[in-house]
Design goal:
single chain; 109 residues; mainly alpha; 2 domains; 0% strand; flat
Length: 109
């Protein structure tokens, strides 16, 4: 009887592990199958536009189709921020340095 319950327990563990493995593999193969087949024309157009935007963004340094008014406004706002916050590079995260406070020793009686 003990051998049978042990076998049932091992069998159910193997079944659940196999089930999880099959679900993962079926999910992965569905993703690979979708990439392999031809895309919907709308999806293709959407992805092409995203790739085009990415290429233009890298070429222009981040902002696409920014005219002189945008550049002037950006320079004015940068100057204001540098004046308000003491200059420095506004494109970097600020560096903080904290000093350890001196604590007085107290004794209790």
């Amino acid at each position: 009887m003990a051998l049978h319950s042990g076998f049932v327990r091992v069998s159910s563990l193997l079944r659940s592990a196999l089930s999880v493995s099959l679900r993962r593999n079926i999910g992965l193969s569905a993703v690979l199958f979708n990439k392999a087949k031809d895309m919907d024309p709308i999806q293709k157009l959407f992805l092409d536009k995203i790739r085009d935007y990415n290429t233009k963004s890298k070429a222009s340094g981040g902002v696409i189709d920014a005219g002189p008014a945008y550049q002037k406004n950006l320079a004015e706002e940068t100057t204001k921020l540098q004046r308000l916050y003491g200059g420095g590079d506004l494109n970097k995260f600020p560096q903080f340095s904290f000093t350890e406070p001196k604590l007085d020793e107290t004794t209790t009686k």
